[in-house]
Specification:
Blueprint (H helix, E strand, L loop, with lengths): L6 H5 L7 H15 L8 H17 L2 H10 L2 H7 L15 H9 L19 E7 L1 H6 L1 E12 L15 E2 L8 E6 L2 E6 L8 E2 L12 E12 L8 E4 L15 E7 L5 E4 L2 E9 H6 L1 E6 L5 E6 L8 E4 L15 E8 L6 H12 L7 H18 L1
Parallel strand pairs: 1-9, 11-15
Antiparallel strand pairs: 2-7, 3-6, 4-5, 8-9, 10-11, 12-13, 14-15
Helix pairs in contact: 2-3
């Protein structure tokens, strides 16, 4: 049989066949042409090998994409151990370049691109603030110790007056390649560690690293309306990159301390406010100072119960990076007096003597239910 027969024809499937169809076709043909079922038949043995070769290629999405585009030429150069130009004109150095052309540079990386020194690491700083700070915003200075670019060498890592030289191992590419069977494998250069350059005469101050540890003071601006876990990014204030590479970023993570009066959900502030039982019975007003330094007056309707919530629009937290304010919500807790004067006790006794049960319908309803339940049990 011809060695150039199309893989899809060998497996007797369409070029659009999915993975399941390919697998089913392969199993059927492999069983049909297996040498054990056709002892001594050279044609069956050759077709069996060809079927295996075709399925091995088409079951791999990357190999299949290369085959669909370039046919068997996509594999001849790599399979030959790296010799020859392939494609008749040396358009691709190896199978890695073929995949890179198909899938883009993100697949394996071309040897022509220099990796260069790595960007500096990002750093984290945890800051605790009060709820009042979160409401009004503030600026605060922080001290951080971080790797910065070395002054004497300007971050290059080379002694002043000298410079880094191109790495002879990788020719400045930062990566080296080695043939491993069918594939060409690419690794970080062991001599320059991917930088593409080596420093023969390192800087005395930073010992060739291009950076030194230093404590510096930064001003952090906390905007109004921040919440627990809000993250503030200071671009370029992280760790300096090696040998002049860009610095990373510094991230400030905010933690809001518990307030003695207010709690918070988003832009809504909550507070539990105690009121006297006479205010609850007769109605009245209560004034609540907010974080905005304003006394907010709430009207208490007569007969209000514990747990009832009242809302004041626009008296809550500011909207972060926006306009407007949230709400202030108070939850009322009716307080029973524990210290009564003789006069107050006398007045309360007189009130109790006039009670009919209609004054507190919830209490009366509860005991009526208990009475009905008891009557049912005793009938």
């Amino acid at each position: 049989m011809s060695v150039d027969i199309d893989f899809y024809e060998l497996l007797e499937v369409e070029r659009t066949a999915d993975e399941a169809t390919l697998k089913s076709a392969y199993r059927k043909l492999a069983m049909k042409y297996h040498p054990d079922k056709n002892p001594g038949c050279k044609d069956s043995e050759a077709r069996f090998k060809a079927i295996n070769e075709a399925y091995d290629c088409l079951k791999d999405p990357q190999k299949r994409a290369a085959y669909d585009r370039f046919g068997k030429d996509a594999f001849r150069n790599g399979a030959a151990g790296g010799g020859g130009g392939g494609f008749g004109g040396g358009d691709f150095a190896d199978i890695g370049d073929i995949f890179e052309t198909i899938f883009g540079q993100g697949f394996g990386g071309g040897q022509g691109r220099q990796r260069g020194p790595a960007r500096g690491a990002d750093l984290r700083y945890d800051m605790e603030i009060s709820l009042d700070d979160a409401f009004h915003g503030k600026s605060v200075d922080i001290a951080v110790e971080v790797a910065v670019a070395c002054g004497p060498c300007g971050g290059t890592g080379a002694k002043p007056g000298t410079h880094a030289k191109r790495c002879g191992t990788c020719s400045g590419h930062g990566k080296v390649r080695a043939q491993q069977g069918f594939f060409m494998v690419e690794r970080t250069c062991p001599a320059c560690h991917g930088a593409g350059e080596v420093i023969a005469d390192p800087c005395d101050a930073c010992h060739g690293q291009g950076r030194v540890d230093k404590k510096k003071t930064l001003t952090v601006t906390i905007p109004k309306g921040v919440d627990e876990g809000t993250r503030i990014r200071l671009s370029g204030e992280g760790e300096a990159g090696a040998r002049g590479a860009p610095a990373g970023d510094l991230y400030i993570f905010l933690h809001v301390k518990r307030h003695s009066v207010f709690s918070r959900e988003g832009t809504t502030l909550f507070a539990e406010v105690p009121i006297s039982f006479t205010t609850a019975a007769l109605g009245g007003t209560v004034k609540v100072p907010g974080l905005d330094r304003v006394e907010h007056e709430f009207r208490i309707p007569a007969g209000i119960q514990s747990g009832k919530q009242l809302r004041m629009r626009g008296a809550g937290m500011p909207v972060l990076n926006g306009r407007g304010m949230g709400d202030l919500v108070i939850e009322l807790a009716v307080e029973t007096p524990t210290r009564l004067t003789a006069k107050q006790r006398e007045l309360l006794e007189a009130f109790r003597e006039t009670e009919t049960g209609e004054e507190c319908p919830q209490s009366r309803g509860f005991f009526d239910k208990l009475k009905d339940m008891w009557d049912d049990l005793t009938d």
